[in-house]
Please model this.
Amino acid sequence: MGILHNFTFTRTRLFQSTIFRLTLLYTTFFCTSFLLLLAFVYFATVREMESQIKHRITSEMNEAKAEYSAHGVESLQKLIGEFLEDEDEGLAIYLLEDTQGKMLAGNMESWPVDVEYDEGWMLFDIESRQEEEGVHVLARDAALSNGYRLLVGYSLRGPDHTKKVMLDVVSASILLALLVTGLSAPVFSGVIRRRLERVNHICAQVIGGNLDVNVPSTGGGDEFDHLADNVNAMLARIAALVKGLRQTSDNIAHDLRTPLARHRNRLESLIAHPEQLPQAEPRIRAGIDEVDSIVETLNSILRISQAQSGVASDHFTTFDLSEVVINVIEFYGELAEQKQITVKGSIPPNIRVTGDKLMLTQGIANLIDNAIKYTPAEGQIAVTLTQHQGRIECVVADNGPGIPAEFYGKVKERFFRMEASRTSQGTGLGLSLVDAVAQLHRGELTFSDAQPGLIATLTLPIGAEG
Model:
């Protein structure tokens, strides 16, 4: 019973498979086309053979009638004899009768009975020693002068044999097609199903929480390999997002614990010493600043998440990026003057880009803010905007301490701050946001050494649809 149950389950599952049904449909279509081709060959062959027989009968009938008209019945008898001598296969039928129905020449003893006529052609059967059911004959008859009758025909034994052979071939082909269909459909569907089951197996592992997996590829470059490449790219993207989420959660817990604890201690101190409230304004303001810093950190995390998830791509428009960069430079002008830093801009007009205007504004602002933060007094910052070969580059160069080349990738990570930067204000999210904005617009954020200082380049495609 167990074996029968497994067989029934497998068979039911097989017929429910879309792959099996498609394979069965394709195989059936192929076999049907093959059978139609055989049918066409069959009818074309039979028609051609009958056409040749009719042509021979007509030709000999015309020759016999001409001979009779020119030389009389004795000459016709002689011609029929020559026809019979030239006929090696014994397929030709001739009969010449007089007015009394007596055979004068030919190889038939009497005029045929049970004759069917079809557009002037005679169809009848004659007995044969080789064929139990007799032989079909196609013939024409003609009434000659003086009451003579002439019949010229041809045995259809050859075409009938050909028909029988071809019908046997067609029958065998039908059986073979059914056999091939029945055997090939499960085989083909099984091959495809096994490749799909690899993908399903990987998906099951991902559902179980294992993101460190890949769909194997055969390297043949077929549709399944393309599917495997896309699934693997998707898994890599999911793994990166999950890793970033875990890292963000850890960093939020680490970086926000200290300011929240300080804020709580201040509030507890004010509750414990209410008499100090009139003199507590500086401490209250410091607490407000701490809260503002926490809110700004959370807002930055939210903007990075929006950029990395692609949600912001719904707000893409085409706008003047030159105007945006000029406005950001003017906004940070006062801060740069306070630090005695010179900010020079080389911004050509009317450089337009397609993207999220708010996100790009925030990204360019973070680059300039980062440069001002780490450039020493009386330093210089150069902001340039260029367009060439379908790409736009916004370059912010400073002459500050710069970043070692080995940290170019690390500074894009959330909350990463170099040891020399931990004494200054900041959350370590500025360059992470710029990198997320670049990825949202299918661009990139790169760094190079200004000797001294840092050159940060934000590269964007002109049409940056996500």
